[in-house]
Write a structure and sequence with these properties.
Elements (H helix, E strand, L loop, with lengths): L8 H20 L6 H12 L5 H8 L3 H13 L3 E6 L2 E9 L1 H8 L18 H19 L5
Antiparallel strand pairs: 1-2
Helix pairs in contact: 3-4
Protein backbone atom coordinates (compact mmCIF):
# COMPACT_ATOMS: atom_id res chain seq x y z
CA UNK A 1 0.00 0.00 0.00
CA UNK A 2 1.20 3.50 -0.82
CA UNK A 3 2.31 5.86 1.91
CA UNK A 4 -0.38 8.43 2.71
CA UNK A 5 1.69 11.27 1.26
CA UNK A 6 1.79 9.41 -2.10
CA UNK A 7 -2.00 9.03 -2.39
CA UNK A 8 -4.08 11.32 -4.61
CA UNK A 9 -5.89 14.10 -2.71
CA UNK A 10 -9.35 12.64 -3.41
CA UNK A 11 -8.23 9.29 -1.96
CA UNK A 12 -7.03 11.08 1.16
CA UNK A 13 -10.36 12.91 1.48
CA UNK A 14 -12.17 9.58 1.15
CA UNK A 15 -9.99 7.94 3.79
CA UNK A 16 -10.50 10.86 6.17
CA UNK A 17 -14.26 10.71 5.67
CA UNK A 18 -14.46 6.94 6.21
CA UNK A 19 -12.22 7.04 9.29
CA UNK A 20 -14.27 9.84 10.84
CA UNK A 21 -17.54 8.10 9.97
CA UNK A 22 -16.34 4.87 11.62
CA UNK A 23 -15.46 6.83 14.75
CA UNK A 24 -18.92 8.41 14.88
CA UNK A 25 -20.68 5.12 14.15
CA UNK A 26 -18.83 3.46 17.06
CA UNK A 27 -20.24 6.15 19.34
CA UNK A 28 -23.76 5.18 18.22
CA UNK A 29 -23.35 1.42 18.81
CA UNK A 30 -24.88 1.49 22.32
CA UNK A 31 -28.01 3.12 20.85
CA UNK A 32 -28.52 0.47 18.13
CA UNK A 33 -28.68 3.21 15.52
CA UNK A 34 -26.74 3.99 12.36
CA UNK A 35 -25.56 7.44 11.33
CA UNK A 36 -27.96 7.45 8.39
CA UNK A 37 -30.88 6.44 10.59
CA UNK A 38 -30.03 9.20 13.07
CA UNK A 39 -29.84 11.72 10.24
CA UNK A 40 -33.26 10.67 8.91
CA UNK A 41 -34.83 10.80 12.37
CA UNK A 42 -33.43 14.28 12.98
CA UNK A 43 -34.58 15.53 9.59
CA UNK A 44 -38.06 14.10 10.13
CA UNK A 45 -38.14 15.78 13.52
CA UNK A 46 -37.62 19.15 11.87
CA UNK A 47 -39.99 18.40 8.94
CA UNK A 48 -43.55 17.16 9.08
CA UNK A 49 -42.92 14.48 6.46
CA UNK A 50 -40.51 13.68 3.63
CA UNK A 51 -40.78 11.70 0.42
CA UNK A 52 -38.53 8.61 0.18
CA UNK A 53 -36.93 10.10 -2.94
CA UNK A 54 -35.99 13.22 -0.96
CA UNK A 55 -34.56 11.06 1.82
CA UNK A 56 -32.44 9.18 -0.74
CA UNK A 57 -31.09 12.51 -2.01
CA UNK A 58 -30.32 13.67 1.53
CA UNK A 59 -28.47 10.43 2.28
CA UNK A 60 -26.55 10.55 -1.02
CA UNK A 61 -27.73 7.04 -1.86
CA UNK A 62 -29.90 5.35 -4.45
CA UNK A 63 -33.60 4.62 -3.88
CA UNK A 64 -33.16 0.88 -3.13
CA UNK A 65 -30.60 1.68 -0.42
CA UNK A 66 -32.88 4.36 1.05
CA UNK A 67 -35.79 1.90 0.94
CA UNK A 68 -33.73 -0.65 2.87
CA UNK A 69 -32.83 1.94 5.52
CA UNK A 70 -36.43 3.14 5.76
CA UNK A 71 -37.80 -0.42 5.98
CA UNK A 72 -35.44 -1.16 8.87
CA UNK A 73 -36.58 2.01 10.61
CA UNK A 74 -40.21 1.08 9.96
CA UNK A 75 -39.67 -2.40 11.48
CA UNK A 76 -38.22 -0.70 14.56
CA UNK A 77 -41.36 1.43 14.74
CA UNK A 78 -39.50 4.74 14.40
CA UNK A 79 -41.22 5.86 11.20
CA UNK A 80 -44.39 5.27 9.23
CA UNK A 81 -45.29 5.99 5.66
CA UNK A 82 -48.53 6.83 3.99
CA UNK A 83 -50.00 8.53 0.95
CA UNK A 84 -49.39 12.21 0.43
CA UNK A 85 -52.83 13.84 0.79
CA UNK A 86 -51.91 16.39 -1.91
CA UNK A 87 -50.61 13.81 -4.39
CA UNK A 88 -51.99 10.31 -3.87
CA UNK A 89 -49.31 8.82 -6.14
CA UNK A 90 -46.59 9.85 -3.67
CA UNK A 91 -45.74 8.41 -0.28
CA UNK A 92 -44.52 10.39 2.68
CA UNK A 93 -42.46 9.23 5.64
CA UNK A 94 -43.29 10.54 9.12
CA UNK A 95 -41.76 10.18 12.55
CA UNK A 96 -43.73 8.03 15.01
CA UNK A 97 -44.00 8.33 18.77
CA UNK A 98 -41.40 5.55 19.01
CA UNK A 99 -39.13 7.57 16.72
CA UNK A 100 -39.47 10.60 18.96
CA UNK A 101 -38.70 8.38 21.97
CA UNK A 102 -35.62 7.03 20.16
CA UNK A 103 -34.41 10.59 19.60
CA UNK A 104 -35.17 11.47 23.22
CA UNK A 105 -33.07 8.48 24.34
CA UNK A 106 -30.13 10.27 22.73
CA UNK A 107 -30.50 13.39 24.88
CA UNK A 108 -27.04 14.48 25.88
CA UNK A 109 -25.50 12.46 23.04
CA UNK A 110 -23.38 14.45 20.64
CA UNK A 111 -21.75 13.38 17.43
CA UNK A 112 -18.95 15.76 18.33
CA UNK A 113 -16.54 13.63 20.35
CA UNK A 114 -13.88 15.11 22.58
CA UNK A 115 -11.41 14.68 19.71
CA UNK A 116 -11.40 17.66 17.34
CA UNK A 117 -10.46 16.43 13.86
CA UNK A 118 -9.61 19.99 12.87
CA UNK A 119 -7.46 20.49 15.97
CA UNK A 120 -4.27 20.14 13.94
CA UNK A 121 -5.00 23.47 12.19
CA UNK A 122 -4.71 27.07 13.32
CA UNK A 123 -7.84 29.24 13.04
CA UNK A 124 -6.50 30.79 9.83
CA UNK A 125 -5.78 27.34 8.38
CA UNK A 126 -9.30 26.19 9.31
CA UNK A 127 -10.82 29.15 7.43
CA UNK A 128 -8.57 28.53 4.42
CA UNK A 129 -9.36 24.80 4.47
CA UNK A 130 -13.11 25.53 4.64
CA UNK A 131 -12.79 27.92 1.70
CA UNK A 132 -10.88 25.39 -0.38
CA UNK A 133 -13.24 22.52 0.47
CA UNK A 134 -16.25 24.68 -0.39
CA UNK A 135 -14.71 25.51 -3.75
CA UNK A 136 -13.98 21.81 -4.39
CA UNK A 137 -17.55 20.87 -3.38
CA UNK A 138 -19.04 23.48 -5.73
CA UNK A 139 -16.80 22.20 -8.53
CA UNK A 140 -17.74 18.54 -7.91
CA UNK A 141 -21.45 19.44 -7.87
CA UNK A 142 -21.02 20.46 -11.51
CA UNK A 143 -20.44 16.82 -12.48
CA UNK A 144 -23.10 15.49 -14.84
CA UNK A 145 -25.73 13.33 -13.11
CA UNK A 146 -25.53 10.20 -15.21
Amino acid sequence: MKATNELPVMSKIGMIFLTWRRCLQKRLLPYDLSLKQLYVLRRLQSNEALAPSRIAEMLFCDRPTATYILNTMKRNGWIESGKDPRNLKMRLVRLTTEGIEKLNSLSGFSLEPEFDPMGCFSEAEKRQFETLLSRLYDHIKALPNE
